[in-house]
Amino acid sequence: MLQAVSILGALAILAAFAANQFGWIKPSQLSYALANYVGAGILTAVAVVDWQAGFVLLQGTWTLVSLAGIVTILRKDGPRQGERD
User: Fold this and answer.
1) What is the pLDDT of residues 55-76, one digit of tens each?
2) Are 28 and 65 in contact (CB under 8 A)?
């Protein structure tokens, strides 16, 4: 079960990365930051359960940086009517 959860987290991060590489989304978009935040958060939780210190550090940092990106995007752009990611 833990492996399935970690795969979902990895897929969220990889989907954002691939979408960026193909030009479908930009790192400055909320959808990109959210996918990274959710994926890294899931992987952080899995790393904590398995107590893999290196991955706790890596994914925990990735989660916090993604959260900072979300906050920056929301402060900068704010929700605007009629606009989509």
Assistant:
1) 999 999 999 999 999 999 999 8
2) no
